[in-house]
């Protein structure tokens, strides 16, 4: 077997790209990644998910490289079960979340701490992001926190994020969309792109040899920085314009499409 992918680092977003919670990971993606790894490539995920909501979902994927989790706030080695680094939200983040909960009674809230993902109730019972997550009252939460997530009406999400980021009221954090009706509070200056830069600098890797595929606005910075970027067919046009290749749908094996593109590029086809 040839080693055409030797020295190539491929990172994939998870939700809406590699797979979906409702359908799992398409077998075509798993087979293509296995072939990529067998032929010398390094594969990792670059996701907004934290480890506690990640390991079971990707257990059939042959991840053999470092991965960027929690939107780049942590770099994790699956093989060694260790972090290269792992950054937490500032202590003020809890007060920010409480303020937003008080002001927006119709928002769903999820906190991520050492206990994992927690649906949060406050004042009233909230929309649950995932019914399988444990539900707690806001006052019971214990930090430190990796991030907070908010479920809001899809029609309002872009205006909500813009307003929060431009308000100047949230020191050391910012807000980013990670799903159709989902946005996150994350540490300022932290994103998947910055994680990629740090990873390449610390490991003496030419960033031109990195490849990324994603589909959402929390992928913007890494799309801009990776050597070659790709998105799925239903990605927003703004993000599509930042990519070198547009793959098919997540359901039909978008990652497999991208791996075929990479191989053809390396073969100059």
Describe this structure in words.
The protein is of the alpha/beta class and 269 residues long. It folds into 2 domains: 9-87 and 190-266, HAD superfamily/HAD-like (Rossmann fold); 93-187, Hypothetical Protein, Haloacid Dehalogenase-like Hydrolase, Chain: A, domain 2 (2-Layer Sandwich), CATH 3.30.1240. It is built from 7 helices and 14 strands. The longest helix is centred in the C-terminal third of the chain and has 13 residues, at 254-266. The model has no long low-confidence stretch (mean pLDDT 93).
Topology at a glance:
Layout: E1 9-12, H1 27-38, E2 42-45, E3 66-69, E4 74-77, E5 82-86, H2 93-103, E6 108-113, E7 116-121, E8 134-137, E9 145-151, H3 157-167, E10 173-179, E11 182-187, H4 192-203, E12 210-214, H5 220-225, E13 228-231, H6 237-240, E14 245-246, H7 254-266
Parallel strand pairs: 1-2, 1-12, 7-8, 12-13, 13-14
Antiparallel strand pairs: 3-4, 4-5, 6-7, 6-9, 9-11, 10-11
Helix pairs in contact: 1-7
In short:
The chain is α/β, with parallel strands linked by helices. It has 7 helices and 14 strands.
Measured as a percent range, the helix fraction is 25-40%
Q: Specify Rg, calculated over alpha carbons.
A: 18 Å
Approximately how much beta-strand content do the residues carry? 25-35%
**How many strand segments?**
14
Quick one: overall form? globular
Order of helices and strands: EHEEEEHEEEEHEEHEHEHEH
CATH topology of the largest domain: Rossmann fold
Kindly report the name of the CATH homologous superfamily of the largest domain. HAD superfamily/HAD-like
Number of domains: 2
- Report the uncertain regions: none
CATH C-level category of the largest domain: Alpha Beta
Strand order of the largest sheet: 8-7-6-9-11-10
Output the structural class.
alpha/beta
Largest sheet: 6 strands, mixed
How many helical elements? 7
């Amino acid at each position: 077997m040839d080693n055409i992918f030797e020295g190539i680092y491929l990172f994939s977003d998870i939700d809406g790209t590699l797979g979906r919670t409702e359908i799992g990971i398409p077998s075509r993606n798993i087979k293509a990644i296995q072939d990529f790894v067998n032929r010398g490539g390094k594969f990792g995920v670059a996701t907004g998910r934290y480890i506690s909501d990640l390991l079971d979902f990707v257990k059939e994927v042959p991840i053999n490289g470092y991965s960027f989790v929690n939107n780049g706030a942590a770099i994790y080695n699956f093989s060694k079960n260790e972090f290269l680094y792992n950054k937490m939200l500032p202590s003020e983040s809890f007060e920010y979340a409480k303020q937003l909960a008080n002001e927006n009674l119709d928002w769903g809230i999820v906190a991520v701490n050492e206990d994992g993902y927690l649906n949060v109730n406050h004042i009233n019972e909230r929309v649950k992001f995932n019914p399988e997550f444990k539900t707690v009252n806001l006052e019971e939460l214990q930090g430190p926190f990796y991030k907070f997530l908010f479920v809001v009406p899809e029609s309002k999400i872009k205006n909500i994020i813009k307003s929060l980021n431009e308000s100047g009221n949230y020191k050391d954090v910012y807000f980013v969309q990670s799903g159709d009706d989902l946005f996150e509070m994350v540490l300022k200056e932290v994103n998947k792109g910055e994680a990629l830069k740090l990873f390449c600098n610390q490991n003496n890797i030419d960033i031109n040899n990195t490849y990324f595929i994603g589909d959402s606005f929390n992928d913007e910075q890494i799309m801009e920085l990776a050597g070659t970027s790709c998105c799925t067919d239903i990605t927003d046009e703004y993000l599509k314009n930042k990519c070198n290749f547009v793959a098919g749908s997540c359901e039909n094996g978008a990652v497999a499409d991208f791996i075929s593109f990479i191989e053809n590029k390396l073969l100059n086809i």
